[in-house]
Specification:
alpha/beta, 12 helices, globular, binds magnesium ion, 13% strand, DH_E1, Rossmann fold, Pyruvate dehydrogenase E1 component subunit alpha, pyruvate dehydrogenase (acetyl-transferring) activity, binds thiamine diphosphate, six-stranded mixed beta sheet
C-alpha cells in the first residue's frame, strides 16, 4: 500500500499549481509523511456572485489524497458494475449512474460532518456511499434484497441513511430542495450548528419550487446550501435548450453563489467549507458544481444521441476527477503507478465480493409490502369512490 512508503518525519509545506506543466511544478519528495501539509491550487478560480470567493490555494495531506483516490475509484467501479448487473437483469427498474461526478460527493464529505444533512435526487448511489453506506447495502438495494439500505423496497432512487444525515434519494425532480430547506429549518430551530446540502441538477434548476424554498430560506437565514450539480444535461436536453441563463450560481439573485470546478475534488472541498461557514452565519448560498456524467441519463439512455462521443472522451481526457488526483499523487511522489494500480485491483475485489454477498441476500417477504409506508400509528383507511365504504386499512 502506498501509505507504507511514507515516512513520519516531514511536516513541510509544499506549493504546487496544476495549471503549469506538471514537471515544473512539483518538488519530488520521497520522504513525504502521510500528514504533511500540501498547498495545492485549484484547477481554475472560483466565480462568485454577491460574495468574495475563497482562496484558490487548498490545503490537503498525502493521506487525504490517497483516500480521495480510493473512494472515487470505488465509486467509479461500483457504478460500472451496476451497469453490468442491470444489463444481466439482476437490477430492474430505474437506475441512474454517477460516474464522472464523483468529485462532488467526495469533496463534499471532506468538509462536512455527519451532523450536516444531505438530500439529493435519484442519482444517489455515490452520495450514499460517501455518507458511510456500504457496498453490500448498495448492491442489495439495487437488486431488491433485504440487506439493502431501504430493505430492498426502494431501489436505485431511494437510498437513505438517516443515522449519518442522508435523507435520500428522491425521484420527483426538484422536490428534495424544499425538503432540504425544511431540514435546515430544523437545524436552526434546534441550534445544532449544522447545515443541509440540497443537491439538484441543471434541469431541476428551472423549477419554481426551488425559488419558493430559497425565498423562505433567505428570509429566515436558514443554514441551507443549494448545490446545483450541473452535468450540462437534463435527460437528453442540453442546458442551453432548457435554460435562458445557465449561470446557475447567480440564479438566487439576492442569495450569494459560487461556481466551482466540480471535477476538482479539492475545489469542491474548499467551496463546501466556505459555504458551510457562510450558511451558519448568514443563511443560504448556492454552489454550482460544473461536472459531467459519463453514462446516459438512465439505463434506457445510451447517452450518445444528444452529445458527441468526442465530447465525452474529451472530458475524460481533460477533466477526469480521478485522473486529476492520480497526477497529484504521482507528481508529489506519494504513490507509484504500481501502487495505484494495486488500489484499483483491491477496489475491484471489494466490489465483486459485495455483489456476491448481495446475491445471497433474500428478497423481502410479500407482507413487507405493507410496512414502512406510513409512520407508525398514522395508518390510513382507504375508501371506495363514494367515500363511504372503508375498503382497506393499512398498518
Ligand atoms: C417533476 C418531475 N418532472 C419530470 C421528471 C422526469 N425526469 C426525471 S430526471 C429528469 C431530468 C433532470 O435533469 P437534471 O436535474 O439535470 O438532473 P440529472 O439527471 O442531470 O442529474 C426529468 C425531466 C420527474 N422525475 N419529475
Ligand atoms: Mg443534469
Amino acid at each position: 500500500m502506498a501509505l507504507s512508503r511514507l515516512s513520519s518525519s516531514s511536516t513541510s509545506t509544499i506549493k504546487s499549481n496544476l495549471i503549469k506543466p506538471i514537471s515544473t511544478i512539483f518538488t519530488l519528495n520521497r520522504s513525504i509523511s502521510s500528514d504533511t501539509t500540501l498547498s495545492i491550487e485549484t484547477s481554475i478560480p472560483f466565480t462568485a456572485h454577491n460574495c468574495t470567493p475563497p482562496s484558490t490555494t487548498v490545503t490537503t495531506t498525502p493521506n487525504e489524497l490517497l483516500n480521495f483516490f480510493h473512494t472515487m475509484s470505488l465509486m467509479r467501479r461500483m457504478e460500472i458494475a451496476a451497469d453490468s448487473l442491470y444489463k444481466s437483469k439482476l437490477i430492474r427498474g430505474f437506475c441512474h449512474l454517477y460516474d464522472g461526478q464523483e468529485a462532488v460527493a467526495v469533496g463534499m464529505e471532506a468538509s462536512t460532518t455527519k451532523k450536516d444533512c444531505i438530500i439529493t435526487a435519484y442519482r444517489d448511489h455515490c452520495t450514499f456511499l460517501g455518507r458511510g453506506g456500504t457496498l453490500l447495502e448498495v448492491y442489495s438495494e439495487l437488486m431488491g434484497r433485504v440487506d439493502g439500505c431501504s430493505k430492498g423496497k426502494g431501489g436505485s432512487m431511494h437510498f437513505y441513511k438517516k443515522d449519518s444525515g442522508f435523507f435520500g434519494g428522491h425521484g420527483i425532480v426538484g422536490a428534495q430542495v424544499p425538503l432540504g430547506c425544511g431540514l435546515a429549518f430544523g437545524q436552526k430551530y434546534l441550534k445544532n450548528e449544522s447545515v443541509t446540502f440540497a443537491l439538484y441538477g441543471d434541469g431541476a434548476a428551472n423549477q419554481g419550487q426551488l425559488f419558493e424554498a430559497l425565498n423562505i430560506a433567505a428570509l429566515w437565514d436558514l443554514p441551507a446550501i443549494l448545490v446545483c450539480e450541473n452535468n450540462h444535461y437534463g435527460m437528453g436536453t442540453a442546458e442551453w435548450r432548457a435554460a435562458k441563463s445557465p449561470a446557475y450560481y447567480k440564479r438566487g439573485d439576492y442569495v450569494p453563489g459560487l461556481k466551482v470546478d466540480g471535477m476538482d475534488v479539492l475545489a469542491v472541498k474548499q467551496a463546501v467549507k466556505f459555504a458551510k461557514e457562510h450558511a451558519l452565519q448568514n443563511g443560504p448560498i448556492i454552489l454550482e458544481m460544473d461536472t459531467y456524467r459519463y453514462h446516459g441519463h438512465s439505463m434506457s439512455d445510451p447517452g450518445s444521441t444528444y452529445r458527441t462521443r468526442d465530447e465525452i472522451s474529451g472530458v475524460r481526457q481533460e477533466r477526469d476527477p480521478i485522473e486529476r488526483v492520480k497526477k497529484l499523487l504521482l507528481s508529489h511522489d506519494i504513490a507509484t503507478e504500481k501502487e495505484l494500480k494495486d488500489t484499483e485491483k483491491e477496489v475491484r475485489k471489494e466490489v465483486d465480493e459485495a455483489i456476491a454477498k448481495a446475491k445471497e441476500s433474500p428478497v423481502p417477504k410479500p407482507s413487507d409490502l405493507f410496512t414502512n409506508v406510513y409512520v407508525k400509528g398514522y395508518g390510513v383507511e382507504a375508501f371506495g369512490a363514494d367515500r363511504k365504504e372503508v375498503r382497506a386499512t393499512l398498518p
